[in-house]
Amino acid sequence: MNKIDFWVMLLSDMLSIAVGIYIGRKLLSRLFAQREKDAEVRSAEIIKNAELTAENIKKDRILEAREKYLKLKAEFEEDTNRKKNILITNENKLKQREQQLQQQADQSKRKEAELDQQKAKLDQQQESIGKRREEAERMRQQQVEALEKIANLTAEQAREQLVDALKAEADSRASSYIKSVVEEAKLTATKEAKKVVIETIQRTATEHAIENCVSVFNIESDDIKGKVIGREGRNIRALEAATGVEIIVDDTPEAIIISGFDPVRREIARLSLHRLVQDGRIHPARIEEIVAKTRKNIEDEIVEIGERTVIDLGIHGLHPELIKMIGRMRFRSSYGQNLLQHSREVAKLCATMAAELGLNAKLAKRAGLLHDIGKVWPEEAELPHAVLGMELAKKYKEHPEVCNAIGAHHDEIEMTTLISPIVQVCDAVSGSRPGARREMMESYIRRLKELEELAMNFQGVTKCYAIQAGRELRVMVDAENVSDEKANTLSFDISQKIEKEMQYPGQIKITVIREMRSVAYAK
Length: 523
Description:
Layout: H1 3-151, H2 155-203, E1 214-218, H3 223-229, H4 234-243, E2 246-248, E3 255-259, H5 263-279, H6 284-313, H7 320-328, E4 333-334, E5 337-338, H8 339-356, H9 361-370, H10 385-395, H11 400-408, H12 419-432, H13 439-456, E6 461-467, E7 472-477, H14 484-501, E8 509-514
Parallel strand pairs: 7-8
Antiparallel strand pairs: 1-3, 2-3, 4-5, 6-7
Helix pairs in contact: 2-8, 4-6, 5-6, 6-7, 8-9, 8-12, 9-11, 9-12, 10-11, 11-12
Function: Endoribonuclease that initiates mRNA decay.
InterPro entries: HD/PDEase_dom (IPR003607), HD_domain (IPR006674), HDIG_dom (IPR006675), KH_dom (IPR004087), KH_dom_type_1 (IPR004088), KH_dom_type_1_sf (IPR036612), Ribonuclease_Y (IPR017705), RNase_Y_N (IPR022711)
Membrane topology: Single-pass membrane protein
């Protein structure tokens, strides 16, 4: 190959390379132009979509704002109308009050005019009386002078003789008059006192109900009795142990008898049975759980009863503890008479009698409601219930007149106010009416409580319930501290102490119950 051919080939190759480069550049420029065009189209579509989205969002926001505006406008109009109605009502009340005040003012003006007329008449009468007195004095003087001439006595001598005679006559008449006035006052006082008492009794209507010692729990079918008794009687034993009452399941159709002297225990047992029957799950653990919840509900109900009582009687400002004790009265009795009904009755009687006598009826009603508050104090106290009630009233800032009336209604302290004898009288009226109280009931309940308290004094005793009208005493002991041998000894010791310290008819059966439970939890 010569040099010419070499250079020709070299130039040919270089020309081919240059043409390739030129063609590649043209192709690249077209590709870039196409991509740029596609990007512009795509960006235009994105912008268009974004504008559509923004427009939709804008419309949604406008609709939401409009709905919110309409809602706020409706609320504003409703609130405005309500306030407008209140203003109209208040304006009507003000107008009525202005009319009443105007009427009262007119009545006052009429009364003033009548008083002026009466005053003018009185002035005329006084003037006429004065003239008559002057005329009478002149005539008396003339008669005195005439008598002096006839009797040959001076006026002073005649006056002395006349005074002596008048003194003797006045003494005789005065003694007779005083005797008649005293007798008339006694008769009038007795008559007025009877009138006040009779009117008070006639104007006071009360419910007269005497609590008994048995509650009846109605059931839908006798099949439920088997569930209540449980296997080998474990359910009924657990229920009796938890509530302290006796559950009697006999042949009485569709009924279970709950027996116990404490109304609170009977009510807890009745409500617990109702919940257990509705739930359907009746076993010892469930029974204890339901009884605990029911006992808590009864405590809440006691507060509600107290609040409802003071509202019904219109008594305000009582301390919450006093209201709670008033609620406890519902489940206590005094000589067989429900204590709350008795206190309500005494409160109404006191208010009526105080109003008849022109005294403070509100304070009298308050003292009548609280006069037996010492009977429901949960802690043991050596004071009489009247003195204890007075101390409680003082503790909770009651009025001194109310405190004195509470403490003096059984003559434990001296009466210092007029309300005190009213409370004492009304208490006697409420308690002494035929059928109100039963002395045997109160002594019976007291004996059962003493029986339970006697057994509770023994070491290891956790619970104690007197059942079967006091003929049986069930004593629950702590299984960890009292063994089986000690349980036998404990029943004998309790029986010996009952024989020595208590008086009772028949015999009392002492049953000591020792129950061991083992509880574990699977986690």
